Amino acid sequence: MPAPIRLRELIRTIRTARTQAEEREMIQKECAAIRSSFREEDNTYRCRNVAKLLYMHMLGYPAHFGQLECLKLIASQKFTDKRIGYLGAMLLLDERQDVHLLMTNCIKNDLNHSTQYVQGLALCTLGCMGSSEMCRDLAGEVEKLLKTSNSYLRKKAALCAVHVIRKVPELMEMFLPATKNLLSEKNHGVLHTSVVLLTEMCERSPDMLAHFRKLVPQLVRILKNLIMSGYSPEHDVSGISDPFLQVRILRLLRILGKGDDDSSEAMNDILAQVATNTETSKNVGNAILYETVLTIMDIKSESGLRVLAINILGRFLLNNDKNIRYVALTSLLKTVQTDHNAVQRHRSTIVDCLKDLDVSIKRRAMELSFALVNGNNIRGMMKELLYFLDSCDPEFKADCASGVFLAAEKYAPSKRWHIDTIMRVLTTAGSYVRDDSVPNLIQLITNSVEMHAYTVQRLYKALLDDISQQPLVQVASWCIGEYGDLLVSGQCEEEEPIQVTEDEVLDVLEGLLVSNLSTPVTRGYALTAIMKLSTRFTSVNRIKKVVSIYGSSIDVELQQRAVEYNALFKKYDHMRPALLERMPIMEKTASNGPTEIVQTNGETEPSVVEAKHPPPVTQPTNQANDLLDLLGGNDVVPVIQNTVSTKPASAGGELLDLLGDLSLSGGTSPAPAPSVPTSQPSFFLDGLTSQPLFNDIAAAGIPPMTAYNKNGLKIDFTFERANPNPNIAVITIHASNSTEADMTDFVFQAAVPKTFQLQLLSPSSNVVPALNQGTVTQVIRVLNPQKQQLRMRIKLTYTHKGSAVQDLAEVNNFPPQSWQ
């Protein structure tokens, strides 16, 4: 059989291949020849064939058939054979294959070989791919080599010991005596590997950490010698003596000094020396300085030393290398909470990084800028961040807008500044703001009584300029509906008032209704605003015409609103002024408290249950009955609070299914209420809660109960008693989700027998977070004048992991205190 080609010739041949197919053909041909050679037990060329096989493995071709040949080479007496055999074992074998156990005896023999290079090969292989079984069998041999006087073997044995400890941590104590002596070695290679071994032991065992803290002075002495030593060509890298060893020692000092006063005190001086004497013109020096900064920040260092560390990071921000700037920003972001004032000194440099072309640096600079905002610099920082918001890429706008909102809410110097800032964000990045920005701004405006005229004028001007930013348009519509009379009367004192007529205001709102830029939610805001203006403007007939037009809209939401508003104009005109009166001041409280921000699907409307000063109503009883008539009659009051549905016409049938045979006093099932279109809940019905139908809520000490617990969804009821009317029970549902995926499109529906009257408010959200990370709450008010035992049929619908889920349940075990 002719001699196989050499490795060099194979490489040259493969590189001449012009296509992948041609290369594959060459490899397959050579593999066939290698297999034939292996079958013939050709010892002469086994080493050459395995070397070629390893090259093919590196190119990504299968080479597993050479595993046993590697073992044969390892067993050979020739060093060249052993070298290729061990290299092949490290590349082709791992602990998942039983073949590797056959090497154990060969490695043990080679660890005791008379030639140090053969011993080194065995140590490298064991440290690279040794399994836990091999490590247990050979740990004693490694420990012996740690104690040898040969520095070449000691450094390899130390790295092999690291691998043994990772595989079998309980063998750590075996290496303890030998490890202590390694630090007295002069050879830098042994010192480096011994520090790596010490670091591994300290990270894995608190006992070892406490034991090795006594070595801190010795480590400090080694580091000092490295810094003070003169030029050494063997270890010099860009003018710095062995930077790799310096970085390793600094990392070990950080672990030893963390949480320990004595160790930290012992290393303070050397850290200051490293920080001040290290050359920063080369990347090598920057690596050492960065490791020094991390060590200073982690140990219990002096305040002056921490300031020095932050100043080093500040200098990094001026470096031309983007990686160094990114590292500096990330480190400052971690330390800004503990050393806020020191980081503040570099505020201008950090803000300049917002203009960097690199997106990673811009994002880190943005996060750090928001972390630096406080009451003293809020105006200047917001100016810079708003400028950044104007010019940044779309991917930054959402996070930047959220950050501006949070900072403005926390540190706003005045309400006017707060309103101006949020309006600026809505004007420039309105499409990117979070969903809760609209209700939050509405609440802010409502609570700033003295700013109502100024705010509605500013928002009106903004509407004239641009109606593409939907959150801005929604807030502006709400404010015009609430404070349109102030806009028309020109009562603004903060800036020059504008002259606006009622028709001009209505023209703008009608323009929103017909604009292609307006979303269905925005049109709902605009129609509601026009309806509110019927009690503030004199153009009532024009408003009636607009409302009646949308009574036949193809948008179910607009149609529902328009029909209800038409009903207000006709049958319930005596209620209209009270229902559409100006919203009182809203406060953020618990979801079942006297004041709420009620979130619906896709939009948010403030809903207030006035607690302390209800407005005078001449006929509370009649109005309450009218309200219940509007909600669905006095016989049965099922209430559906639903998400967007593709089958609104089936709502009545769903009510019949929901009620089923639930009846306490009559032999027949109760008749369902008139169906309510099941798109988003009506703004009109939300607005009704501002009337004092139900009075203040006072805790009644009623025990909670679990109404439903199935498929990871748990529904708990908590109870309160309305005061002064004891016939009204206030039930708050708390929906939690213990599964690993969110439950979306969550809808809770309820129905009660005809002897009760029920009102179901909007839920806090339609998503139940996974892993019990939050709850969805919803308030139910039940009027029980006859003090009968409470029974309820509930229906739950939601989407979980892409599948729609629907379930019915009957709740009969209400606590007696809730209905007696």
UniProtKB/TrEMBL annotation:
Gene3D superfamilies: 2.60.40.1230, Leucine-rich Repeat Variant. It is found in: Cytoplasm, Perinuclear region; Cytoplasmic vesicle, Clathrin-coated vesicle membrane; Golgi apparatus; Membrane, Coated pit. Its main location: cytoplasm. Residues 700-815 form the GAE domain. Subunit of clathrin-associated adaptor protein complex 1 that plays a role in protein sorting in the late-Golgi/trans-Golgi network (TGN) and/or endosomes. The AP complexes mediate both the recruitment of clathrin to membranes and the recognition of sorting signals within the cytosolic tails of transmembrane cargo molecules. Belongs to the adaptor complexes large subunit family. This is AP-1 complex subunit gamma. It comes from Amphilophus citrinellus.
